[in-house]
Amino acid sequence: MTALHTKQTPAWAAGLLSAIVWGAGQTLNRQYLKGLLFFLIGAGAFAIEIATGRYTDMAGGFRFRENGGFFLKGLWGLFTLGTQPRTMGLTGLTAGDHSIVLMANGIIALFILLLFLFFYIWNIRDAAKARSQLNETGMLHSSLQEIKKLWESMYAYIILSPAALLTLFICVLPIVFGVLIAFTDYSRSNLPPTKLVHWVGLNNFVTVTEVFSWMHTFLGVLLWTFVWAILATITTYFFGFFQAVLLNSSIVRFKKLWRSIYILPWAVPAMISALVFKSMFNGQFGPISQFLLDMGLTSERIYWFTDPSNTNLARILALLINLWLGFPYFMALIGGTLTTVSESYYEAARMDGANAGQMFWKITFPIVYKATAPLLMLSFVSNFNNFGVIYFLTEGGPANPDYNFAGNTDLLITWLYKLTLDNRLYNMGAVMSIIVFLIVASFSLINLRKSKSFEEL
């Protein structure tokens, strides 16, 4: 720390200088290197805007669309979504605005501006804080000392910041984009670039709640999604638990062989397995239907996944196939957990006269459940959004004429896929994705809190 002989200047004055010109307050405090760094950051923001805009051609006045740079035009595009659609002429599409591109560019511009705003506020507070310290003590760290101190105290955050920035643009940005789509009229009847997308507020959410066909489809698909997620999670968990307990038993021989056999369904990609099962249970030429017909067990072929008169058949079969695909995960997980249960618990229980069933429910199950409850909740969320098994196995069938773009085995996630990719109803798909997120997030949070799995964190 260095003693500086300067005039008493209010801390707010140094902050005001940095607010007007980046780094000016640091320069007043004689921290020239810090002042230069903050100035370069601020100048970089202005340089990006000037270099990407057309500020030298404003004969007709400043217009965001024609003259604005990356930041100003980005924000203008985000708020307006464009003002001039493209039209098809003799030589192709004319110049104009693409609403979705403008929205994406606007979100990126907003994120980068927020980062610059963070440095701008830091620049002002740093100048005021340093000036206050200098007025009180007459001593102040040099710029190099400040940078070294910052590196030592914020080392973890500095190292984590590149990954955080990457997460911001790779994960957060698409989520924000998807949420914003829910408040627009972006659909197959209003597709850029020949048409402009508009902000419609909560109209899409109102449509879901007030239009019977949409509400009927949503409630039906939501109910089946919950039934599917609960049954798929419970069956795979307890069947995996059962297999793990058997393999952990001292009377079972060749345990490595059995584990290797049972782990195969998990090792094979679920998509491949689902497509194989889909072929096996094909109603027209599948070997299962043919075998039952040849054996005289059925008088006609069974359309396992497409029979609209027996929708429960497709649902039950999907649950059984998911059980075959999912139980090895819990078998391996619980098998490892069982090795951590102390044998002394069982010895004490035997001395008290407990039988095998009592030891399982009073010792084994509570210990294993507490250790695996968070993963059980994650499995529920995964099954709630289990796109692969349902889509590649049944494609949402059998068809349901009462539903909007959904079948009897469609989950919310496969319905969203059909709404967006197959039918290009992007706004409604975004609305459903928000609702799904709220449901899954609320359910997961409540159950994790009740399981008390994170009490020690």
TrEMBL record:
The chain crosses the membrane at residues 12-29, 36-55, 100-122, 155-183, 221-245, 257-277, 313-338, 359-381, 425-448. Pfam families: BPD_transp_1. InterPro entries: MetI-like (IPR000515), MetI-like_sf (IPR035906). SUPFAM superfamilies: MalF N-terminal region-like, MetI-like. One of its GO terms (cellular component) is maltose transport complex. Residues 222-447 form the ABC transmembrane type-1 domain. Keywords: Cell membrane, Membrane, Sugar transport, Transmembrane, Transmembrane helix, Transport. The keyword Zinc does not apply. It is a multi-pass membrane protein. Its main location: membrane. PROSITE patterns: ABC_TM1 (PS50928). GO terms for biological process: maltodextrin transmembrane transport. This is Maltose/maltodextrin transport system permease protein. It comes from Paenibacillus cellulosilyticus.
